[in-house]
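note to self: the first set is below, dont mix up w the second
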Amino acid sequence: MQWFSVADRPIAKHFRVRHVQVKSKPMQPRSSASGAEALPYPTGSRRVLGQIETPALKVEERVYAAGLSVPRHSHDTSNFIYVIAGSHWVGHSRGGDTCAPRTVRFLPAGEPHEIYFPVGCRCLHIELRQPILELAAQDGRTICAPGELAQSSAAALGARLHREFRQRDDVAPLDIEATVLQLLLMGRQNSTARRSLPPSWLLRIREMLRDQENPRLTLAELSHCVGRHPVQISRQFHHHFGCTMSDYMRRVRIAQAQSLVAHRDLEIAEIALACGFFDQSHFTTAFRKLTGMPPRRYRSRIFGKP
């Protein structure tokens, strides 16, 4: 862990800012609010490039490696994510979004979500703490639903956050907090309501696809279980979750596999079968396609080996 400068400076009455610059610090995973086990990541798959922290929020610029799949988890705090470069896919209770550059999305505290990075991605991650949430609530209804902020002004506010973050001085937090308040108050404009919520039968389909006890469900069987036509299931799944059912299942399986690969006592063949693959060869091909490397090399990077 390499820290360049850490200083506590007063920025306003009752507030102090902790301004931290970090040089390519690998992130250490931690347990989520849901009590899930801490997720292992290979060396360099997630890095923190810089950080600003106040009593109201913590802002980090993060880089994620291509091929990283993060299984379903949640956080203790609400968060904004501004995509600086690259893209990623995130699934949550309202569906799924492909997060492109210059977009802002919101995740409330405790929201279960899963993430896949098909390409490398650089983001600004804003952790919202109770003081700023309470301050925003004094002015009106704040944003509460997960998903991308649809208002055109969201992109400009996200860029403003990044610009102020890069100033790295003791006055930057003033405008950062003001900008975050504007994003929070977009809740009055119902800014995430870009499409209707997934129907309950479609959410049931998603959970059935995640169920490792039924890894070979056919489209006809899914149709029979929820009483919907197969074409409707296929179209609605892609509409609400932004990917096909097959792609979703691959991401779920590889995310589970990335966690299991960290256990040295498990053979690759065992992991393949546990994650629903036909055999080790099939698993290795799918793993390499999504992560860019075979599982044995991924395991080596988790433990810091070249």
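second set (the one i keep forgetting abt)
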Amino acid sequence: MKKLKLNHYYVREEIHAIFSPDTDFSSGKGDWGGRGYASIPNRKGDYVFMASYGAKSKNIIFKERINEDGTFDWQSQKHQCLHHKVVRDWINHDENENKIYYFYNDGETVGKIKKYKYLGLLKYLHHDQSKEQPVNFQWQLINWEQSKKKVIKRKNVKKGILRIGEVPALPKNLKKKNLNKKNSSSRKNRDFSKQDEKNTSLGKLGELLVLRHEEKELIKINHDFDKNPLIHQSDKEPESPYDIKSYDENGGIKYIEVKTTEGSRSTDFFMSSGERKFASENIDNYYIYRVWQYDKNTDEGECFIINGSNMERILDFIPINYQLRLKRK
């Protein structure tokens, strides 16, 4: 059984095993398997909170963002009023006598199973006495000094700006280039944005900027993050053929490949053969987010979006390298 450690990730079943090993666990059901909180058996007044940013329940979106000082707003379940027993426990919570353990899902998953980071114990600050169903609380993370540098900063912490524009118009009387024509002057020593794309830091920053943009757009349409989480796939799987899994307004999957450069929108960018193959196999669900003129200092960039179905029409695919091997008999 895993031990409880600050800033470590746990799935719900592991959290259950730590605090309530003598009870049954049901995935997706009950206090430990599905709800946002659970009372610890035989420990009156002690609770475990399991929160997910953007979780949705009965048309309420729970936006439990953590502020720079380790405080955060938190909502009870929709049916709970100010006189509900557990609500009274939380209002009267004294961190010197009882404990509330706080686990937070920041988008991390194992397959389809959420992972929750343990951020420590909570101190009650106040609640809104004028509202209920749900009741609104504010809490303080007691262990914030040890956690704040490791907490994934979501959009309320880093406010990058991604300006989405139109795809550049194709030149009139466009003639198809002869890409097989031998022209050493157009191939040799032309790196274009290769340094940018090979720069892991720049590429990751561009991905995070798009990730925050997608999160904002999904919140606007009341997307169910609990059912279909926004996933930063390349962060979990560096060799993935796409960077982000998101959704459109109809719930359709969007496989997003982010291409980031500091140069102009006409700067060349690079795509692996694996990425191109995946794009061709998922042509209607594949999108290139072309981030250009990205500024690291302000976390801002311009962007246009190319759907997989338009890639071959809009982009020239230019072979610049060859992999060589001995001929096979």
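remember for set 2: The CA atoms of residues 252 and 279 lie 16 Å apart.
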